[in-house]
Structures are given as structure tokens and as C-alpha cells.
Amino acid sequence: MALSALPARAHMMPAGQATLNVLEDAVFEVVSVPVSAVASAGADEDHDGRLSDREVAAHEGALVSQVVSRFKLFDGEREGTLELSIVRAEADDREPATQAGAQQLLALLKTRFPAPPRALRVETDLFGTTPADQQISVRATRGADKETARLDSKTRAHVFFAPAPKAVVDAPGTTSRAIGAAIGAAVILAAGFGFARRARKLPAAGK
User: Phi first, then psi: what are they for 120, rounded to 5°?
Assistant: First the structure.
């Protein structure tokens, strides 16, 4: 759906959440970004902690730069290639007539990889100044696979759909047989040492 077709004040993503939708070698991202997390972009001209549509439009380049440099996707160690980035002021929860502006930005991103990502890693530090804005819940979907991770200033990265480590499992009875063989070898060695000690005590032939 084109951005222009969206209702002017429709919520697309609740605050503190993001979604990653993996389709083949591309990942489509929808991210709610606290305005306070991108304060260095200088878009909040009246310093009210909110962004109006006009402020977002006037500083779109700086806002996009902040978002894409601080919300990144990797497949293993390979960083994906950003193909699309759009930011807009998310709907304000207060009475629309106030025209106070939004406390959250909505970022729409598309990242592509050379091949379908096998271990999709997200890294971000887009956290705001209020307690509610200092964490983000990221939900990733890849076909029937779904996984959710909660990131904050202490845990800024997560690997989705990571293959489970293969456990080393002995064949049935292997461990028992190995232990039995070791015990048997110890018994044989002990018996051998005992025989050698007894042999040294025997008198030489003819004496």
C-alpha cells in the first residue's frame, strides 16, 4: 500500500514496537521511533518534544539519516542494503484538534540481502528519554516462523531464526561401552603389574 493512500491520522504501529517481515531476500520494516531518540536531527524546532508534519517534512533527510544509521539489519556479519526509507509523524493520541504534533515517528524501511537471510540480526539504539521509550519490542516474521525480542540500552541486538546448535549425542550404548572398556583396561594393567612383582620374587632356575 502506498504511503499516500494511508489515512492521515491512522495508527500503523504502537509506540515501542517494530515489525520485520522477511520475504525471500528482502525485509520490510515498520518501526515506531520516539521523537526524543532523534533529537539530534534538529527537527523539533519549537522544542515541545513533538514533531508536526511540517517539521518532519522540513527535516526529512536528517531524520531518515538518524533512523537508518541506528536501526540496522544483518545476515550473520553481512549488513543488508537499504532500498527504501520513509518517515512520517505518527498519529497523536491526544485530541487531534490540538495540532500538538506527534511524540512518535513512523519509519518504513526495506532492506535487501544477496540471499534470503538465515540468521537475521537487528541492531538499534533508537531509545528515547522517558522510561516507556527506553525499550522496543521487535517482532520478526518469516513465513510460518515468528519470533519476538525486546531490546533496550543493555541489549541492543538480537538474532532471529538462528539455527539451534547441534548437540553431540553418542550412539546408544557408546558411552557405556567406552566406560566399560576403560575399566577393563585398568583391570588388565593392574593384573599385569601384580604378575610382574611376583615374577621378580621367584628364584632363578637351577638355584
Answer: -75, 120
